[in-house]
Short-chain collagen C4-like (Amphimedon queenslandica), 342 residues
Amino acid sequence: MNLIVLSVLILTTLSTIVSTNENTIKGSSSVSTSKGYINETNVKEVYLQILRGRDGPDGVKGERGDKGEKGEAGPVGQAGPKSGGVMYTRWGRKSCPTGAELLYEGITGGSRWNHSGGGANYVCLPKVPQLSLSLPMRSLVVCSVLLSILTLTTTIPVGQACPKSGGVVYTRWGRKSCPTGAELLYEGITGGEWYNHPGGGANYVCLPKVPQYMSTKVPSAYSFMYGTEYDDVYNTFSGKHQHNAPCAVCYTSTKSVKLMIPARTSCPSSWTIEYKGYLMSHYYNHRHNKVYECVDENPESVIGSEANTDGALFYFTVSTCNGLPCPPYVNNRAITCVVCTK
């Protein structure tokens, strides 16, 4: 009761002050006193605090309201990277089928028809070998390198474990390690058939340093596996003549396709260079030919392999003006190569 009486007295006094001075101060939100001005808003806040008293305990939490309506869809995000994919060459054509991306148009190249050695496979040479010149291709056989969204497979010799799902696997010939950003699956030794055998395997393989065998029985008929030597590489691979070549099998999880381009040292736009080097195979006059491989520009050697044991061999491959346009190709110039991923 006393609180109510006090509140009424305060309000009565303030009301009297406001009414006495309202003719003097008009349009103002404050009231004049002998000590200044009294703000009406502040007075009301004081009064409400007097009437309100102490805060009570927290109330009971109310029930959850109804679920709101679904909001509008946000903007479409950027497309993610393509999953999987495969690169292939369309021999005899300058363009790709519908649905495939043209990486480059080129010229079909290979070893001479009556040479017993040299490369065993055809390659799609770019029309411009890292130069800016171009000439009509006359009556050469053309080719085109394509990219299509499919799946990839790889073969790992001698019982090695398979890589993770996705990504791309490639071999870095001539080195024991992988480029930055790629995972080393295993370090190995480059193997192949003897250079002067007319039969046997036509490809190089990356043999693991520790093999796994399944049978102790000797087959009745077979081919051979030898180490692979750098041969006659004095001017370019200093100190590596007759040394055996190592290899590294590499895996990159962020890429899905691999491409080796002969006669180039750079990759197409949006592709990543894994390594570059020289296109190598057997000597043109050997009885046994081998597929062309891209050997790293800074090769290493297998420790203790300095002896001249021959076996499979790595020789440089040179361009000729017999069937290739010169320029831009140059006669007897070592052909470069680059390994690209995307």
Q: What stands out?
A: The first strand starts at residue 30 and ends at 33.
